[in-house]
Amino acid sequence: MQSQITYAFSSPLSLIPRLVRLAIYLFLSLISGHVSGQNIDASVKRTIDSLISKGTTSIKEIEKVIKPFEMDTLQMDYFVKASALKNYMPGQVVGLNKLGVRYRLVSKFNKSIEKHKQALESAQISKNVDLEIYSLNMLGVIYERIDAITAALDYTYEALDLAQKQPKPSINIQQSISHSYHNIGQINRILGQYDLATQQFKKALEIEESLKNKLGLAINYQNIGECQEAQGMLEDALQTYDKAMTLNNELHYLRGKIICNNGIAHIYVHQKETQKAVNLLQNTLLDAKKHGEHTLIAAVHLTLGWALTELKEFDKAEENLRLGLELSSTYNLQRTRADAYDLLSDLWAKKGDYEKALKYFRTSLDVKSQIKNNNNVRYVYSSIIKRDNEKSLNSMNQQLRKNNTRLLVSGIVIALLSGIFYILYRQYQLKNDKKLLTLEQSMLRSQMNPHFLFNSLNSIKLYIINNEQKNAVHYLNKFSKLVRKILESSSMREIPLAEELETVELYMNIENIRFSNEIDFNVHVEEDIEVHTIRIPSLILQPFLENALWHGLSSKKGEKKIELHIYKKTKDYLDISITDNGIGREAAERIKQNKVLKRKSVGIEITKERLANFSKDLLNTFDVEFVDLYDENNEPSGTKVILHIPMT
Fold first, then answer.
1. Confidence at residue 378, expressed as pLDDT on a 0 to 100 scale
2. What pLDDT score was predicted for residue 56?
3. CA nearest 9: which of 110, 151, 128?
4. DSSP one-letter string for 224-240
């Protein structure tokens, strides 16, 4: 269970803008009053003041001092600002990175990226190579966590290249090299290249052993265990997990113990010791909730759901799988979502409902394709081959006179590796195709329910029956134009914003027939928005408008309004808000629960997946906010949905 882009990295030549930003940051810190130390624990304040006065430069020593409060964002924010005021750059950089880690653990990925980028800028301003490499690796980790594979690889390789250029690497830099190898291993593991991943983890292990770093050893052992499990080497994986667990217990490292127990439970299920897995997971789930990291809680729920499925305890299994899916969807954990859909597919197949099984399996494939697409695989392989080429050529240039055959051998090896990579990837595709075909053959029936098309034609038919020929022709023209635009747009990844707005207008005109033209629909576009040059994914607004119509306004009496507002708060995002004055989400949900026939719309979930896929080629990620609106009497007065679509 388990498009190439170029990223512009900061360089020391752009110091002036960074210094300006740093000055603004310090000024805001002063006027905010937070740096004064209010609400800061006195002992923490003394520890921070002592650390700053000593001017410790070792990252490891700084981390050791701040470890007791590194997960407290208030204390860490004070540490960062106090370090900045005293021009203590190592403290500022480490503190910003620790804030980034904390936000990553609670799935606030945009905030995490922001803090790590601030840390990188500060490190580059100070011209401290140790801090710069440390910050680059942290950016590699967060981008790997949100499945932005190319960005993760670029930042990690930049860190590794910079570290390996140092003639006498410090302990900090040796640690960073190990961290880089670990990041590259994780990326290969995500893409299913377990042998390559294991090679990288073993490189990291060698460094951690030389540094006698037990935490680093534990982390790499547990990752090797995951690779061994994925390759069916269950006994080897169990032994590797035991090594990691021994170290985690010595360190009292709760996160590591949760990951190891979850992995061990996987193996128990594979070995048909399923009840043993359930017993282990029930305690592990309590630990995961105590730890509070959404990724871990979701993963344990999924493993528990899988084990319960094998025991045919289907109700409990579905409950756990849906909890895992809900967490992964809420916090945009793509890999976990794919696992959830896969396991739900297996659950329904075991229950004999092959139609539902097929639906979940197809959704799983869609999510996986966003992570493991051809561009990502090609990019990673080309990066590995390019680096292997560079190393081989450097070595061969030194020994060319002694052995001219090495060039030929290296070329053959690289060609063979390329062929193997391609074959492995094709096997992955064929495996999914085979499963899809099996489910399709097992289906009892397949239904198409084009509700919108049927109801729209039915409304136009009523005009014809009532002899309202003018209205019938008018709306039939709009309907045909809308269908044509949908068909044209569906074949394109991106379209101009102007075309999307035209499609939305046509859609609302057609839907308004069914509401007896009661809907007051308005579009507001800010003056600085170039609707003909800005490009967005096609057909992303209709599901949110449909939700507003049928959940917010269909049960409302009186005035019915929908406002579509397009604006930009920052240059990096296009913001689109859809506001209705309907009955609100709580009342809509109550009505839905009371209906005999419950229709679950998947349009918004599919749109989120498409926006996630669109964001893969960009540095920033998309976000969708649902805001409940209330009047002066605190009564529900509608819903606002805000889409933050990345432009860079």
1. 45
2. 86
3. 151
4. HHHHHHHTT-HHHHHHH
Tokens of 580: 């209705």
Torsions phi, psi of 124, nearest 5?
-70, -35
**Mean of pLDDT values over 511-527:** 85
Cα separation of 586 and 589, whole Å?
Answer: 5
**Backbone φ, ψ for residue 404 (5° rounding):** -75, -15
Going by their DSSP bridges, the two strands 519-525 and 560-567 should be labelled as parallel
- Size (the chain), residues: 648
Q: Is the pLDDT of residue 406 over 70?
A: no
pLDDT tens figures, 105-129:
887 888 888 999 999 999 998 888 9
Rg of the chain taking only CA atoms, in angstroms: 28
Query: How many Å apart are CA 532 and CA 502, to the nearest integer?
Result: 11
Starting at the earlier edge strand, list the strands of the sheet with 560-567.
Answer: 519-525, 560-567, 573-580, 636-646, 623-630
pLDDT the model gives residue 249: 93
Please, where are the H alpha helices in 372-468? Answer: 374-399, 405-442, 451-465
Q: What is the mean pLDDT of residues 80-87?
A: 90
pLDDT mean over 386-404: 49
Decide if pLDDT at 595 tops 90.
no
Contact yes or no for 260/244 (Cβ under 8 A): yes
Task: Give the residues across from 636 on adjacent strands.
Answer: 630
Report the chain's mean pLDDT, rounded to a whole number.
78
HSE of 82 in the Cβ direction (CA atoms, 13 Å)? Answer: 25
Residue 398 in tokens: 């030194």
Q: Give dist(CA 13, CA 10) in Å, integer.
A: 8
Q: Which residues pair with 573 in a beta bridge?
A: 646
Which residues, at least 6 apart from 70, have a Cβ–Cβ distance to it below 8 Å? 63, 76, 98, 101, 102
**d(C-alpha 236, C-alpha 240), whole Å:** 6
User: The tokens of 349 are what?
Assistant: 């197949």
Q: Using one digit for the tens of pLDDT, what is the confidence trace for 251-302? A: 999 999 999 999 999 999 999 999 999 999 999 999 999 988 888 999 999 9
Q: By C-alpha distance, which of 83, 20, 77 is closest to 50?
A: 83
Closest CA to 492 of 536, 461, 543: 536
Do 305 and 339 touch, CB atoms closer than 8 A? no
Question: What is the per-residue pLDDT across 311-330, written as a single tens digit (0 to 9) for each?
Answer: 999 999 999 999 999 988 88
pTM: 0.56
Residues 545/508, Cβ–Cβ less than 8 Å:
yes
- Run of H or E including 575: strand 573-580
Tell me phi and psi for residue 211, to 5 degrees: -90, -5
- Per-residue pLDDT tens over the stretch 86-111: 899 999 999 999 999 888 888 788 88
H/E element holding 567?
strand 560-567
Residue listed under structure tokens 């140790």: 130
Name 192's bridge partners: none
Q: Are 79 and 95 in contact (CB under 8 A)?
A: yes
Task: Give all strands (DSSP E) within 208-354, no chain letters.
Answer: none
Q: Dump the DSSP string for 617-639.
A: TSSS--EEEEEEEE-TTS-EEEE
What share of the chain in percent tops pLDDT 90? 25
- Report which of 133, 144, 126, 135 is spatially closest to residue 166, judged by C-alpha positions: 133
CA 566 – CA 576 distance, rounded (Å)? 5
